Amino acid sequence: MDKDLKKLLERIVGKKKFSDRVEDLLCASYDGTRDHAAPEVLVKPADEEEVSRVMRLATENKIPVYPAGARSGLTGGAVPEKGGIALDLTRLNGILEINPASRTAIAQAGVILGDLQKASARHGLFYPPDPASTDYATLGGSIAECSGGLRCVKYGVTRDYVLGLRAVLPDGAIIKLGSKAIKNVVGYDVMRLIVGSEGTLAIITEATVRLRLLPEFTRMFLGWFKNLDLAARAVQAVLDSGASPRMVELIDKNALGAVAKYAEGLIPENAGAAILVELDGLRDCVEVESARVRHALEKAGAFDQKEADDEAGREKLYAVRRNISPALYNLASGKMNEDVSVPIDRISEIFRATARIGEKHGLMVATFAHAGDGNLHVNFMYDASDPESFDKAETCARELFEKVVEVGGSLSGEHGIGTMKRPYLDLELGKNEIALMKRIKNLFDPGGILNPGKIFPDE
Amino acid sequence: MSNFLEELERCARCGKCRTVCPVFGAIEDETRLARGRIALLKAYLSGKIEASGDLEDIVSSCMKCRQCENVCPSNVKLLPALLAVKERLSKNKSAGSAVRFFMDNVVTDRKRYDLAVRTAAAAGKLLPRVRGAKLRHLPLLSGGRRRLPEIAPESALSKYPEVTKPRGEVKGRVGLFLGCLNNYVTVHVADAVINVLAAGGYEVVIPKDQVCCGLAAVTLGEKESARKLARLNEKAFEGRDLDFVVSACATGTGMIDEGFGEFLDMPDALGAPVKDFVEVLDIIDIPLRRLDLVTTYHDPCHHTHRGIHDAPRRLLKRVSDFREMENASKCCGGGGSFSLFYYETSRKIGEVKTRAVGRLKPDLVVTACPGCMVQLDDLLGGDPPVMHIAEIAAMALDESARGRS
Questions:
Q1: Nearest to A27 among B12, B39, B52 (CB)
Q2: What are phi and psi of B288, to 5 degrees?
Q3: CA–CA separation, A227 vs A302, rounded Å?
Q4: Sign of the C-alpha dihedral, residues A294, A295, A298, A302?
Q5: Is the distance from CB of A354 to CB of A367 less than 8 angstroms?
Q6: What's the first-to-final CA gap in chain A, in angstroms?
Q7: What is the pTM of this model?
Q8: pLDDT tens digits for B268-309?
Q9: Residue A90 in contact with residue A138, Cβ under 8 Å?
Q10: B16 closest CB neighbour out of A30, A136, A384
Q11: CB nearest B54 (choices: A21, A30, A384)
Q12: Residue B130 has pLDDT above 70, yes or no
């Protein structure tokens, strides 16, 4: 990038919010994956207007732009693969409105999800999407990736909560889509096209989102099973029970084994699988639903059940699930976490397949799932210092993806494609679909400057 | 250095440290976040970037609070690696820096250190008082704007004999490690600790030859000075036949317990288990009366790292009207020498405390680290007062249990 252009960028965002120092560039080179590439400059615009001016300049000069929030994405979406401008949106961090009557919030892209939650809670409301990164991920990033989380089985995903967006197109034009109205069928639903577009179509600057009333009462159940089949049966039984759980998590034996080593006394010796169920709502309703859940767990063969209502108690039960992530590093130094999604009735089949694939290639594999919505997190554990071991993990991942597509599932439930799953895109999407998507991309971004190269493999 | 590189490689770059890193919270710069620092240390250790003023500042501006380590899902230990790089960077600098001279020749020699502190105190008395407070301790380091406590007229080490016996039956024999602040500045904390221990039936041994814990030296890149200090402390506590060693400074406890092994390869140098004063509260049997006070508690970062949370609250609930403040375990921004070198950032970090205390309006803010006390007192301007948990315990001691023999 030439000096004049750098000067112009510096003029837009101000001296302190522009940098081409190697230290800053290195710290804008990554996201939550092992992928990385340094940009040529880092700019931190203060508002939508500055974003628009940066984009106009980038379009005129054909410079790639890589928007980023907290850089906590899990598929390389924010990595500046081709240099150019790293566009840090965290300064757009205003919560502009919480409207308790219409149950909506308007917030800028750089707002931390957890801060939006806190602000909503003060009005007795909450924003249902809850990715594990809620405490640090930004609203803009989570909309661009269409984040899910633990409560999707009842509440759905980010897409279901975005009512309106403001965004900047690659040429600098500002667009405004949707409104506070829940029903809206005017024109094409471009807003939902931008949700989950991984920062390749437009730069989200502000969102109007739907909130819900905080539940009056919450209860968590933990059920222990001798083996996975019994636990999978329990998942189905809970979903068929008539209760409407917000969370149904399933954890396999290897994941439990890792936690057992990490946190003593948490896992019973003969446990082969566990499920966590959470109900919320009016107290009386939860009581009625609880009876259904208890019965379902028992009938499916739980050898032990635990329940907790207060937050501390629920936290204690949830430790089984929360500790998986750190505990996995006790199994191996590298973790390839694949986020696949399948029809609910095929979950146990995928669990079995992951075990088989791991065994075949000599890798430990630990799997847990947002079972209520068929979203699995499969972790192939490899030796980070051994390239051969890493290759094995990649082979495992490919075999998993093939199996997932075979049962009618999807490569990614909530992490996106980015750079990490790009090579596998054509396992799920056909030639015509990919061609159509590329035409859409071209329509938004004819110059190909916005997060170029993401999602689609090079021809 | 390769083992440090390996440790840093385990960072999964998830970004969770964004939720706790106090420096990042104040200045929102990824290079001043654990994840960014790890990326840069990795690049430096593997030869991808050169040492620079920037890199040095990136290392120095870490508060060493270890909050990132507490929440890290991959359990990456940043601090040992960061301190090793700091040491390498300062070794490469020309010899004879003021810091090195001070650490190596003054702090390691009790007489010289006493003299230096006395001189600073005397110099401080010549300066005007700021904001009606007592500003008499190295005031120029923060541009003279800072409210700092007075240096005590008599240090704890010169005030107390080597052995203080309890009045009644002797239930145990413990060593007291003072550290710099409790020795020179917050001597009232040392008084309280000795009172409480004696009331609980402990014979308190205060080895005269003990010195600074050495964390400041390690932090400033002077590991050799820190080793010298650790060896002096080792000798001072040797053969004392102690049940355990007590420290009433959260940072000092961390250093003489975990830090000696982790940073200096000198585990268990003191020859007895180390307990923080708040950990002693759980095993000590003392009669306490209730105080008519509304209290709140600030968790020192080095206690959070040690897993301490409930013990001080149990005491406060027992003797006072305890109310939890928001963000109780968020850093106050003190961080020892950090607040001297990065005063503006330090105050900005501390705003979270000013806000929380302001909303709660307690009679007292209680903590368990003299470093936090100095910082909180500066932030709050003396209203409400800040006290060490040992002072609360001493205040609540029943008259019958008070005193030493």
A1: B39
A2: -125, 145
A3: 10
A4: negative
A5: yes
A6: 26
A7: 0.91
A8: 999 999 999 999 999 999 999 999 999 999 999 999 999 999
A9: yes
A10: A136
A11: A21
A12: no
Across the interface, whether the CB atoms of B39 and A30 are under 8 A apart is answered yes
Q: Tokens representing B193?
A: 């600790």
The single-letter code of the amino acid at A77 is G
The reply to whether residue A23 touches residue B12, judged by beta carbons under 8 angstroms, is no
Query: B102 — phi, psi (to 5°)?
Result: -65, -45
* C-alpha span between A81 and A451 (Å, rounded): 9
- Opening angle at CA A420, ends A157 and A427, nearest 5: 80
Size of interface A-B (CB pairs under 8 A): 69
What lies within 8 Å, CB to CB, of A288 at 6+ separation is none
Chain segment B194-233, per-residue pLDDT in tens: 999 999 999 999 999 999 999 999 998 889 999 999 999 9
Q: Is there a contact between B21 and B29 (Cβ–Cβ < 8 Å)? A: no
What are A21-41's pLDDT values in tens digits?
999 999 999 999 989 999 999
d(CA A201, CA A198): 8
Split at pLDDT 50, 70, 90, the class of B103 is confident
Separation between Cα atoms, residue A171 and residue A173, nearest integer Å:
6
| The B172-177 sheet, strands edge to edge | B163-164, B202-205, B172-177, B244-247, B274-276
Q: Which of A339, A383, A342, A346 is nearest to A361 (CA)?
A: A383
The DSSP result for A53-94, as a single string, is HHHHHHHHHT--EEEESSS--SSSTT--TT-SEEEE-TT---
Please write the tens of the pLDDT for every residue from B34-67.
999 999 999 999 999 999 888 999 999 999 999 9
Q: Which residue of A has its CA nearest to B52?
A: A23
Is the ipTM, as predicted for this complex, more than 0.90?
yes
A→B interface, C-beta within 8 Å: 21-24, 26-34, 70-72, 90-91, 114, 133, 135-137, 325-326, 329, 333, 335, 384-385
Three-class DSSP labels, B194-252: HHHHHHCCEEEECCCCCCCCCHHHHHCCCHHHHHHHHHHHHHHHCCCCCCEEEECCHHH
